[in-house]
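Lecture 7 notes. Example A: sequence first, then its structure tokens.
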Amino acid sequence: MKKNLARKVTLSILAGAVLMSSSVAWAADPPKGWKEVSGRSSWYVPESGTQGSIGSGEYSDKNFAGVFNETGVAQDGVITISGGSFGKDIYGGRTGLPAKSDDSEAKNNAVNISNGNFGGNIHGGYSLHGNATNNSVVISGGTFKPGSNSFIYGGRANNDATDNSVTISGGTFGEKDASGKERIVNIIGGYSYNIDKKSKKNTVSISGDANLTYAKLYGGLEIGDNVKYGGASNPNTLNIGTADKMYKGNVKGIAGFDVINFASIDWEEDDGTDDGVIKVETLELDTTEVTVDKVRVAGGTTLEDGDKMTLIDAARLIGTIANNNDDKVTIYQGVARTVEVKAEVKQSAVEATTSKGSIYLEIAGLNSSVEVPEADEPGNEGTGDDKPGDSGTTEEDKPASKLNPQVLVIGESRAAATAFTNQGSE
């Protein structure tokens, strides 16, 4: 009995020693190339310069900053993360302490993330007492699952937050846990603590395969979670997709944007079952301008006046869009066939009982007066120059086609993708 007891005690001591040594090593070791800020335990900056990278490791109790200043300007800090697990906050640059007050500024700082697990907040630049200007966060991958809710800021300031950006092309943001509780990631272009200051000219861009089902997107935000808009002359902008690829997905919320721009969409006429390019629980607008740069239409598609495609389907829609009814789009069929039509971005009536509504694009006017030259077929050497070797065909000899004012058929024999380019702002 005594031998067994002694053996158990010995095993317990050994196990405790192993756990303790493992815990101490895990908590104490910073990543290579990083040092603790003097007098600030759990805060780490690059050993030299203002740029640092992390590719692995577990850091539940450490904050990282490219630049950390108690006062003055924090600028040109860059953190690049390609792996690892992080429980606390990440800053491209941070300046200011609660006990000190000055007009310090965080500017030109950046956080770049391609992979990793994150439970804390991410800041491009943070100024506790001054402005945050031209800071950025770029995320192409990673998992962002906070203990409760977390925040990703392009710039965060006590005063003005201007020209900051968050660009997301991959990663998973937020989750619904096993108990059914939603853990939301708030993605904010610019945040100001001060209700008398501005959050303006900030940008959020989403594309690729980013999973934003449990993410809220804000152009501008202030203390108390009050939404801030930049105004027509200093707009906060949401960019959706890229010129080459449409982004389609679910988002928890969208607010604080003066401009919402779709870089490209793939035309799909509404049939009553589609959720739109973006499906969102709450969409908040304030005379927001919604624009579309490019629409690709597959060969064989027939477009008619009144055809619609839902851009944003909102379970709850607050506010209104700007009047975009003068927008024109140009259809490119192959290389040479073009016709300009009117395509209006419109807002549906909001349902009284549910506040459900949508934003959609509608074909509004096919122009029959435009004569479009046929594209040269392969082997046709007619250039109109009458140079040796060509067919001698001039521009006047080429046939012209007139498009019916009510119907436009995109030919199968033309390019597989047809672009609409929005020219409303030109």
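Example B, a different protein, same format:
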Amino acid sequence: MKKFLIPILFLGIHAICLGQHPPDHSRFGALLWKYRTDGRIFSSPSLYRHLILFGSEDNYLYALNATTGALAWKFKTGGLVHGSAAVQGDKVFFTSWDGNFYAVDAGSGKLLWKFGTRGEKRAGTKGLWGMKPGTEYMDDPFDFFLSSPAIDSRNRLIYFGSGDGNLYVLGMEDGKPQWHFPTGGIIHTSPVLSDNTLYFGSWDRYLYALDSRTGKEKWKFETRADTSYHLLEGIQASPLVYDGHVFLGARDGYFYALDAATGQLTWKYSANSSWILTTATAKDHVIYTGTSDSYLLLALDEATGKEKFRTTANGYVYSSPVIAANTIYFGDFTGQLLAVDRISGDVIDRLETPGRLKNGDSILNKGKLDFAYMTRGMDLANYTTTVIGMNKLYRLGPILSKPVIDKDVIYFGSADGCLYAVRLVKP
């Protein structure tokens, strides 16, 4: 969002099937279970054996039985858990807004060790994006995610970014720090490890490539700056490494393809001043990513960046897409989960959260997110208007969580505080 910024019925879930599609596509079936927490869920779920792991704004990391939704254990931190968990062996690793990095036992949820950074920090500044009053410090209301860890199983190392501007490397067994790399901005992106190179973005606008063993910088690539309002700048999306390239969207309104070895630009795609916050995915030499203000899922040719199709959702797309067979699944900010044909971009099915079913007619403009419509009569230049608007949107149960699929079940979190498990069925 920004325009001014320069802003089922199974007692809840409702699926809408749209037309006939080939048998290698799945649509949304029955709600199998849902588990309610006491906070919004922005974290993406992770699977570990029979468990589904995810974090919540109630400060807990949860482990549920993936089949039944029953609680196996939960671990309390001192802050919001917006990052996703990584699992190696019998250890679960994750970050929290309390500034700590945690390792807990995957079977019991007991603390193994924790590492304290220099403190977490949300993006923000006085008079954010030119909003009023200019003397007031304003948190960026779209700084949703924390860095999720990358694991080097061979060298028993774990990597993650922090709001203190550092990329940290810890020993997996005891959390002992190995080295850290300072940047000029908050790091809420998740690092990616490939061929002894660590790739990650920072709010200082740079994508970095480091030697994963020494921390020595190999190269860095600068995305665009916005010297007027600082609205269209910074990196919030995590990179994708695929076929010798690094693919990355940024808040500057561009999606980039860089040579993984050199950092040289191969091509860039203009999203027409729309942020790109999602982590891209790829299949058969096509790159898929979502946009913010234009509400799009984009399919781009890997070699050229040429647009193959665009699919329009009903609100901001901050949920990173996941592919199963020939179907792409992703959520939007109006509380819809969409299933899209990977080849044509046609929408196969939509699933609505209970909040969207209950509040959509009063909040949305003909089913679409329209910030000006939702806050009509209010001053869009005022930061308070943005806060009020965001709180209205949260009543829809937005889906920012990247779904995960296992055994014909799709799992996803919602800002309504629930984790959902929904059966996928073939026609």
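Note on Example B: The chain is about 5% helix and 40% strand. The CA atoms of residues 377 and 415 lie 26 Å apart.
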